[in-house]
Amino acid sequence: MLNENKIRLMTNLARYEDGDGKEDLKISKYYRSDYVGIGLFKNLILTMVGYFLLWVVIVMYNLDYIMSNLPKMNIPVVIFEFVLGYIVVLIFYSIITYMKCSARYLKAKMNVQAYYTELEGLSKTYGKEDQKKKKELLGGENR
What we know:
Layout: H1 4-18, H2 20-28, H3 32-61, H4 63-69, H5 75-141
Helix pairs in contact: 1-5, 2-5, 3-5
């Protein structure tokens, strides 16, 4: 006889494992600080690459103006503004990355916890069926 509750649980578990569960299970293997740290490190690299590429495009676009006014420019001030701009952009994106990674980690942990709760429920269903079968087998031998 088919147990509809068991089939429903197994279907929900399989659906979760094939969908969001893949990513959630990967995330839940990390400590929160490690997961956020990896996200911040990726943010550092990508922000640096993006910021420098943006400035390469800006400099290439304004190259004629820059070359004609280069003797008049105060180079230490330009470098300071460039570095200060990078730090501001990095802090801004780091805050966003921290919040995003923390929220994603907490959501994944809650989803995995619910997944394990459903697994325990499925395990209990199997345990009940096994006990029923043992009782039937043992009861049949005593007659």
